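Data availability excerpt. The first of two example chains:
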Amino acid sequence: MFGYLKPNRKGVDDLNPSRATAERPIFIVYEPPRSGEVRPFHHAYLVLGRRGSSAQVDSNSKGTAYDRFGAKGEKTTFAADPEGFEGLKNGEWAVFQGWTNKTNEAIQSTVDGLEVESYLLEQSYSVWANNCQHYAKQLAVEIVTRQP
């Protein structure tokens, strides 16, 4: 089933997956630099919403956060926090990527594969070529099973 249009609380049509398919929405969340931080881009991480939730995220949304941390010359750390996303915070915004019906185990296998690939290719964290935004986008591409 491809989903249906359902008005959300604000009266705007929102495409929701069918609850019968148990799909989960995927978002990339961007957070602006904090006061005093020196970085030329917004930090990004992937959020996997809860099964049957809508293609919209707000301050009350919950989900699993997948992030990548590192600095030039340091080992990159890949982290998944099952309850790590508790809604958008001030200044953050999210971009909907699609839905997935993959299991948590399959997604973790994909995360592990991206980490191994990064290690084998000796790709250390780089502001310009290998950062948190690249990781979030690549993970989204790997786990999306249905695009909007």
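And the second chain:
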Amino acid sequence: MRPDIGREFLETVLLVNYRPDFEKIRNNQVLIYTGAATASVKKRRFYAENAQIIAAELACEEILFPGHHFSFFHFAEQCADVICSTFVTNILSGQSIKQGS
């Protein structure tokens, strides 16, 4: 048995059972996005599904990135383009605060 298995189990339990304080996030009145990679969404990875659930809960925009979970590393320029175009689109449309409005 690995010596760090207990710590890894505890971290997993904390991660799986964590629930953001959605009311507090809404009351902060800041523009929020969630994001997931298209391949992760297609394969129904839990972290991509979490992004969709949080976007629905907060009524915020979900950004879809090219590739898989680590594409920000492999396709950094394309991911940066997605982020920049999302911000520019929202700034030009006058959208600065989405939550709590």
